[in-house]
Amino acid sequence: MTRTSNSTAENHVLAVIGSGRARSRRDIAQILSLSPSTVSQHVQSLLAQRLVEEGEARGSTGGRRARELRLAGDADLIGAIDLGGAHARLAVVPRGKSLASSTEIPVTMSDGPRTVLTACVDELRRMTGAAPLAGVGIALPGPVDTNTRGVVSPSRMPGWADVDISTLLSEIAGVPAAVENDANAMAIGEHFAHSPSATASITVKAGTAIGAGIVIEGQTYRGAGGVAGDITHTRVSAAHDRQCSCGNRGCLETVASGAALVRLLREEGIEVESTADVLALVRDAHPVATRLARESGHHLGEVLCAVVNFFNPSALYVSGALTSLEPFMSALRSEIYEGSHPLMTRDLTIAPAALGADAALVGVAREVNELLARLTHG
Questions:
Q1: What is the reported pTM?
Q2: Which residues pair with 69 in a beta bridge?
């Protein structure tokens, strides 16, 4: 289909419909802060160009029932990859639809980017069967340089530095590729999973490691160097002079992550191998594990309290394995509410993540959708 208009606003409307964030004119107006009349004008243009179509009427709380908007024709398939330290989580998402299922495969980071990415693309192709991919995106476990499109200072990814991951992934998959930091991908996925969408949200992942992403008015905030939200390497007094994986000492990660709890328990003479072992001990009310989990929640809450006081977000979404532990979450909430100015927390929503382990997949799929919208209609 040939586009008869090059309207930037129409591109935005098409992108939010294709990403699945908007299913109606009202959704579009809320997400893009447009008037109903402006939205109607753009939608009518897209309908006339046969770029979108209307489906069945949706339920409503009153008035005329809205008709569902979707991309016209057969839905393109997007491949999404969330790369972890020892595994990759993958999904195939039809444009304009929700993520239906995901799977995991083991990976070895030291095998290098080409080997790991090839294994991921091969699995995505197995998942699609004979259907081709329109685009693919990957969330990387480290800071991403938006200029070089690669991971920066990958302490746990030997051989990945100075590699243009976007170009390499595109070459392997044979389609356009998007690259994002996993915390940012998670944040954009969570931001639009909650209704109504917050004006400004922070999503924090507290698992084996700690990560955070910031979304303002529907857009990822990256900061001057592209690493905004990287709270894991904030220096905290409780960490003293502990060595961190980043090369510095005294970082939050060394006292508030799952990996830190594993180490701290071992220092207490308790044999644990993984974050999962820590979770099991706390759920069994093991006194030392429970105390350490509570202390970790206080440490993370202390840092988030400073973030809330400075940034004044409207929502804080918390995900990751440690958030399933009541002592951890109670301590985190306590630090934020007791240490923040009342005006900062008066309208603050602190909520569990809605998407769980799929948040980064949903977020990176959205990034691919908007990349395809720019390439096709921009």
A1: 0.80
A2: 54
